[in-house]
Write a structure and sequence with these properties.
This protein is mainly α and 746 residues long. Helix content is 62%, strand content 1%. The chain has a two-stranded antiparallel sheet.
Amino acid sequence: MQPFELPDFYLPYPARLNPHVETAREHTRAWAYDMGILDPGLGIWDEHKLDAMDYGLLCAYTHPDASAPELDLITDWYVWVFFFDDHFLEAFKRSGDLTGAKRYLDRLAAFMPVHPTGPPPEPENPVERGLADLWARTIPAMSADWRARFVESTKNLLDESLWELANINEGRVANPIEYVEMRRKVGGAPWSANLVEHAAGAEVPAAVAASRPMRVLRDTFSDAVHLRNDLFSYEREVGDEGELSNGVLVFERFLGYDTQRAAEAVNDLITSRLHQFENTALTELPPLFEEHGLDLRSRLDVLAYVKGLQDWQSGGHEWHMRSSRYMNGAAGAAPAAPALLGGPTGLGVSAARVRLAPGVTGPGGVRSHTHVPLREVGPLPLPEIYMPYTARMNPHLDTARRNTVEWAREMGMFEQLPGFPGLAVWTEHKLDTYDFAICAGAINPDAPAPDLDISTFWLTWGTYADDYFPVVFGSRRDMAGAKAFNERLSAFMPLDLSATPPPVNPIERGLADLWSRTAAPMTEAARAGFRRAVEDMTESWLWELANHIQNRVPDPVDYIEMRRKTFGSDLTMSLSRLAHGQTVPPEIYATRTMRGLDDSAADYACLVNDLCSYQKEIQFEGELHNCVLVVQDFLNCDARQAADIVNDLMTSRMRQFEHIVATELPALLDDYDLDGEARQALDGYVRELQDWMAGVLLWHMKTRRYDESELHHPPATTRPVGGPAGLGTAAARVGSPLRAVPASLP
């Protein structure tokens, strides 16, 4: 008996079947024999099992317009990747052999060189043999940029196996938001999206491949594919394989749903992802084309790629309904004829005839655009927050407090805004209640007085900019003005420390002053990295403004990734790295271990702010960018449930940080054979991150910025309904530059 009934799916695009399906079936059967995939000695697949899973049908549905040779190649790739999954299960998942699994996966990278210089290693098993053959057949038609992207997505796909194995060994079910994030990073759909480019003969131009709209298209496509697979594979994965990485199980465990309700909730998310895909394609691609000046061919390639993703979405569903690999109530049944086209298909058509499955409002889709701002939510009781590190306070705290008020006055932060009669972003009283010196003092407990002053000034500048931006641009929905404003900021960060234009507002005046103090000790190359980090932070405010213009609550994974920019995490980490000079090889910071360390620290600090600022942002400012609200919208739960999920995510990030420091970082140091000086520098870097997280939490517990009594205090300015406010939290390492401060705290 099936554990639940399959829900009604949102299917906006009719599936079409490639006429070369039989050729693909015959070819891939012979190829599987040649590669040893059907070797009876392995006991994994035989010809009957391969035919029943019918990957020829999968690829014929997901790539309906591919030529016969192209369909053969694509089908071989899917046979390989599904065989890899089953081979890994038998060889490592069932036994829990994590060491052997890592060794197995490390070898596969040698069979995917971006720039081949010779033959690959001698294959030792069908997985390696198949990968070597496929790589040689695939890369001639594609650029080095595409190859690098495909290598990365393939590596992520393989790394998923380690993440799943670690969860199984620990008996751990992931947090819902963590699950979507990790599933997106390491699941197979981004890999499939790369193959769509190959199959469609429409490579995405390198100029826009990494842009946010293209990333959102890939991510929403991936979410829908992965969650759909979770529904169909629940019975096999959870019941037979003991798998814990399944969205239905995650909803059961974390939200207390029964299996049927959990399945319906997962289906709601699939619908929402498809709605977001459509919204991005229709509203964000045209301005992206203009911004990058793409020629006609490049634009057509992008649109062909988008159409290919749509084809994959509908074709993948049809295959899941027919494959013996999955729960569909018709295992072993002969494939039915594809649905006949009932009208035009492709980009934009489904948006004109959007329908929802029964009861679905579409988290991240329709519902995400219907949020009512400035609703009364009341104080959010804080859950018990996990913090293993003790904050210390700088002895120069009182001096920094006095000097910060004077600096803010000199920069004009208490003055009325031109064009807004009677309005000032801040008053001296407001700045006193914020008490940024506490945050800077806890984050920089050992800094001398001058450095602590500059750290507090950075924090003051960033928060003032956060509060200034929505008043001036959000109230008027002025995206053009906001972009022009951000473009001017770069002129106040000259790499050669030359003169800057005359500042026309407190933000420009403060940035020019802080840049000259902070960047002066740096090399020009270091200044370039520092400036890019500041620009990433300020440009992320445009993303938030765009969401406000559409009244769109972002999806949680997109939110967390962008939050690191609005929080200034890149700026924080880059300045700390610069402070260590040449002691630590730069490639160390690009490793998965160090990226995980940085991201876990940044996410923890961001989420602390979101828990503490919930009432201020949602009730008093009409904010959309708060993780508690984002989770409420995405999972359709109440604020208490959302806060618990956010706190659980915070805790898991801190546990991840501790795990990396205790186990992964020592292994990294040994792998790179770092000397004592480099090890000491990295130890100092870890301590700085620990101080940073502890200091951010301490400030949130002591500041009056979020006190309800202060929120009801007559404001320095009045925000219009729905206008953005508190657009993010930034972080900067300033002063020597050795210390870390959040540059703004919403």
